[in-house]
Amino acid sequence: MSDTNPVWIDGKWSKSSGVEVFLAVDPATGLEIAGQFPKSDWTDCDQALEAAAQAFETLQVTPRTVISDFLKKYADLIEANAEALAKQASQESALPFAPRLKDVEIPRTSNQLRLAATACIDGSWSQPTIDSALNIRSVLSALGPVLVIGPNNFPFAFNGMSGGDFAAALAAGNPVIVKGHPNHPNTTKMLAELASNAIQSTGLPPATVQLLYHMSPESGLRMIADRRLASVAFTGSKSAGLSIKETCDKAGKPVYLEMSSVNPVVILPGAIEERGEALAEEFSGSCMMGAGQFCTNPGFVILCASSKTEAFIGNVVQRFGASPGGTLLAASVRDHLAASVTCVQKAGAQLLVGGNAVEDGGRIAFQNTVLRVSGTEFLNHPEALQTEMFGPVSMFVVVEDLLEAQAVIAQLEGNLTGTIYTSTDDRDDSAYQQMVRPLRQKVGRLLNNKMPTGVAVSLAMNHGGPYPSTGHPGFTAVGIPASMKRFGALQCYDNVRTNRLPEILQDQNPAGLAWRLIDGQWTQGDVISAKA
Amino acid sequence: MSDTNPVWIDGKWSKSSGVEVFLAVDPATGLEIAGQFPKSDWTDCDQALEAAAQAFETLQVTPRTVISDFLKKYADLIEANAEALAKQASQESALPFAPRLKDVEIPRTSNQLRLAATACIDGSWSQPTIDSALNIRSVLSALGPVLVIGPNNFPFAFNGMSGGDFAAALAAGNPVIVKGHPNHPNTTKMLAELASNAIQSTGLPPATVQLLYHMSPESGLRMIADRRLASVAFTGSKSAGLSIKETCDKAGKPVYLEMSSVNPVVILPGAIEERGEALAEEFSGSCMMGAGQFCTNPGFVILCASSKTEAFIGNVVQRFGASPGGTLLAASVRDHLAASVTCVQKAGAQLLVGGNAVEDGGRIAFQNTVLRVSGTEFLNHPEALQTEMFGPVSMFVVVEDLLEAQAVIAQLEGNLTGTIYTSTDDRDDSAYQQMVRPLRQKVGRLLNNKMPTGVAVSLAMNHGGPYPSTGHPGFTAVGIPASMKRFGALQCYDNVRTNRLPEILQDQNPAGLAWRLIDGQWTQGDVISAKA
């Protein structure tokens, strides 16, 4: 036990009181990676909660510039250490060192942290609203300590220690307790050490960021129910997400979940006719990229029966079969994927290619897989046939006509994305109109002629959607500053003297940066007194 | 059964398939009011859900002007019938015909409907957000059918058929199924008939508004769980609210609840010294107004022990005792109040005045009541001693010092409002700072030197707060357009051609009215293409 890595609680790296340990595994070899990590017990959780509650008190009187400086400093440190970080993450996740990790995900991560740093100072995210005649003013303000639970598939951009939820919760003024993902503890540890440096050099209250690598579900749910915790942000599996949601719901605290999504793609007849081959290439690339381990992987494709559709399917099957299954993040991902594929097959889907784990020494992988089902068959078992298959797998639903396509869409649960491909000319216009209305209500982001895999960090992005893709359809997990609103409570001030108001609600716009809604007009200006 | 009032489903006034009936009671006499109303069974609920789902389809392609015209026309009709409406509501609620109902609540209600009509056309509520470089655009869009369940205490301004939730849900583009409050069915019926006229004269899809007067909890919860229903807005008791919340949570649908609140008021020593008598008058008036039946009634007053505090308490007790208990809304309110007062007494509170139901012929009333407890006693039983006592009742918590006051505040659950009274000079400034930070995090609206009973319809209002005062701390139930955001799903468009975008997201601002966040700037202008 002496070489077990310490947890980071209340600004100190200290021995976990948990007795269980775990190690990361290199998915490319199946071998354990040196470095023992602790599975925290309740004592660790309790100490982290207590320290976070104290940190929140301090943070409420800490200037926003300190939080902002921390985020910028941390972004700088991540970039300065990009090489080592990417190398470590690549070993733990089997995701490519470059360009994926070093040149795409790390820059995205530091960019997100810098956007959060700006938004934190600017204050526009909090939507300050002023009724000058009645002297009623309101603003979204920090909620309290947030537990951030990151997923396995983005060791930086969604890591609990550095990703979008981390940046948003912190920039909104909340202390963060990070629950690392057990598949990449060494990466998370490196990030935490950089965060720790950044905290020390900027003077943020030490317990503003804390780290536990792992914990039992019991301790985790107890922590979530604890009144010292204000909110939870989670990205991961539906089953874990629903347990967390149930616990938060009972405790009456806001929870933001990103759980599962099959990301329906409708390819209309004109598009298939016009550019079936190109679409097969585009689709295959998107679905197999990163071994298909994206929340927005196109896992469910609706096609109208035709010879062109058969050619498209044949083309995709060939591409999937020609490429060896990419290495997966972990054995649990492979096993879960195998179970999901079996479940979908049992519900009537026909296997066109793939369908099995790759036997390739210790490497953890699954064959690139395509399944197929008719519209009628889908409609007989709509629930099982929209099981998420997380990995390089997709299912084609071949419908007789657009009416059947509508019926299929009507049975879909909530998804993060929905995509419609149309011809470049107007021949699909009428079909588009028939598809878009039912699909629109089922998804958070509607795309046209573009695979859903990319999730741009844009102020207009919605990485969210109706249940069960998330827990609330009004919020996005990606896109600063919109994603910050999740971590604010609406706080109103009624008849409060100017000098007692938060700076951002005073007559004078503190730095002239915040957009404020004053008497119905958005402005970066000051409150103009009616008397003036 | 032949004279049972019909329900309003799918644009038709039709016989309910429920077999049970009920009548309203005049609380001033305890006598039943003529007019039988049906308790709907599942068949009614199912039909309303089906019609609402269809109406939602139509509503999505109905111009916003039609919804807006309906809201304006309905407001006009309510004003034109104010006299008769107020008379009916006064009989059913015992609330004063004037000024309360006719001159205050009805104008507030029609004003709210008109604000919603404007917001519906304007579109700013939906926060259209455009990233012009990436062509990613998002907007809050209608969720789907909303069940609006109004409370007993505002027969107009919070009525499911005419109140804030009704106006907000509808103006956001959602069909509304109204579940009337069984204490005032005749008022709700009159409102529904006016709404029906307004629908006919403006051409809104007939099932956009539907009415069931009552239903069993089983049918209600089945309706709430049904996938055709998108969301629920509820104002009422904590027990009913928690059942609704549990059902919505399980179904993964957003629910907006306004449940209970004791509305803590801290009166600091300087304020008591400076104007104790005036405060006693102000407090007593606020607490006894409308027989104390406000969500924001000041039911919990924290005072520092002193001779001035004793004088204040004595003054209030005299005022409460000198005035006969106002007539309550219903026998159930009286009985629930009696039970709550008993519960608080059992937990250690001392009764200073009142405490019993008024025996006054058939009139339904409860004595104006003041209880008292020490800080120490409160801290021994903090849960029971913050039981909401809905009626003309308040409890004084007399603390030894400010530290004890902080400890009391730390034990409070989430509340809609929190108030601090201070001296007009600066002698309470330091005490204010000690109180405000803990109190701020517990409440949705912080007031200074003003009773919380008034809830202005202001764009900056927050009639919301941390759990269990509501179900989500980020939203307000009062204040157009902010309250409309509850009934929107965030819908993003990625790489969608201009002519396929909703009007409000196209480059040209449709009517130049909507405030849109374009590339980080709020503007009422058009998208300026980078190429231009």
Please indicate the percent range of residues of chain A in DSSP E strands (runs of 2 or more).
15-25%
| Oligomeric state as shown | homodimer
Gap between N and C termini of chain A: 70 Å
**From the helix content, strand content and strand pairing of chain A, which structural class follows?**
alpha/beta
**Number of contiguous helices of chain A:** 14
Low-pLDDT stretches of chain A are none
Strand arrangement, largest sheet of chain A? 16-17-18-15-14-19-20
Mean pLDDT of chain A equals 97
CATH architecture of the largest domain in chain A: 3-Layer(aba) Sandwich
Give the % helix of chain A.
Answer: 25-40%
Q: Which chains have the largest interface?
A: A-B, 71 and 70 residues
Instruction: State the fourth-level CATH superfamily of the largest domain in chain A.
Output: Aldehyde Dehydrogenase, Chain A, domain 1
- What's the Cα radius of gyration of chain A? 24 Å
Characterize the largest beta sheet of chain A: strand count, sense, and whether it forms a barrel.
7 strands, mixed
Question: What is the count of structural domains of chain A?
Answer: 2
Please report the total strand number of chain A as a whole number.
23
CATH topology of the largest domain in chain A: Aldehyde Dehydrogenase, Chain A, domain 1
The outline of chain A comes out as: globular
At the first level of CATH, the class of the largest domain in chain A is Alpha Beta
